[in-house]
Amino acid sequence: MPRPLWSGAISFGLVTIPVKLVSATDDRSVHFHQVHSENMGRVRVRKYCEAEDREVSAGEIGKGFEVAKDKLVAVTDAELESMPLPTAKAIEIVAFVPAASIDPVRLSGDSYFLQCDGQVAAKPYALIAKALARNTKVAVAKLAWHGRERLVLLRVRDGVLVAHVLKWDDEIRDPAELAPKDLEVTDSEIDEAVHLVESMTTDDISGYRDTYREALEAVIEAKAEEGRRPPEPRTGDEEQGGQVLDLMAALQESVRKAQSARGEDGGNAEIHEMPESKPKPKKKTAATKTAKKAPAKTVAKKTADAKKPARRRGA
């Protein structure tokens, strides 16, 4: 388990639970260093002071806010720590809301585990965890951390409280102007899209892997070993995408492929055939009218013959 990033307490009502904030995720990305291409020498970023024209150490670096062009105001760490924020050392729960009411666009991508800090906190920690696990609600709280106050969502995962950092209302842009306008979508197309959603629905996404990172690591391992060639890139195996000419046909084919990938025969999903366009009726000519009347006389003649009594044998 990584080291705690923050320590304080969860506060709601008159209950206080000492906790430690621990990162819930690992960065598994492949990171590169900047190098001089000719000799592989490391290229480093240096902290440089423009006023004194020299490199400065980390201890000499402070914080400044630009209030106007070329005018900075210094803000010290002591001033930040002395700010009268009740959330500076507390995760203050402000409300409990249905989990479905949280728009996923508010999630910033940063997630943290809340570790119980000491035996005294064990029982109230377990109490709130079990209470949240018993219903569909999540806690919304405020936390001051890294120079700003943050809005966080608290939920339970395997008996452990998880904090997800949320965006504030003014940090979310209005997407109204991005929506396509003046487009007509038929009910049949919507129904087929729903079939595609149902055929691709799953309860578990744990089997997915970062294939790009795996391929990149294979290239790096091969280049690290002298005489070993990197793996050849895959070509020709993947289906080439093309322009979608028929939306309904593309949806139906997507449903078929999704069912095939899941080992289904397609019997549970209804596939709608594309309606064929009916040919326009041809204008009737005099010859056509005559040809159509002829079969009618033949039928009438056969009917009359059928009504005649059959001759008895040997008469």
Describe this protein's structure.
With 315 residues, the chain is α+β, with helices and mostly antiparallel strands. It is 26% helix and 25% strand. It has helices spanning 77-81, 122-134, 187-199, 211-224, 247-261, 286-307; strands spanning 6-12, 15-23, 35-36, 41-42, 48-49, 54-55, 63-68, 71-75, 90-98, 107-116, 137-145, 148-157, 160-166. The strands form four sheets. The chain has a seven-stranded mixed beta barrel with strand order 1-2-10-13-12-11-9. The chain has a two-stranded antiparallel ribbon with strand order 3-4. Helix 3 packs parallel to helix 5 (247-261). The longest helix has 22 residues, at 286-307. Mean pLDDT is 79; it is low at 267-280 and 285-315.
List keywords for this structure.
315 residues, alpha+beta, two-stranded antiparallel ribbon, 6 helices, 25% strand, disordered C terminus
Query: What is the element string, with H for helices and E for strands?
Result: EEEEEEEEHEEHEEEHHHH
Biggest β-sheet, characterized? 7 strands, mixed, barrel
Query: In angstroms, what separates the terminal alpha carbons?
Result: 111 Å
Radius of gyration (CA) equals 36 Å
The total of helices stands at 6
Kindly report the average pLDDT value.
Answer: 79
Strand content: 25-35%
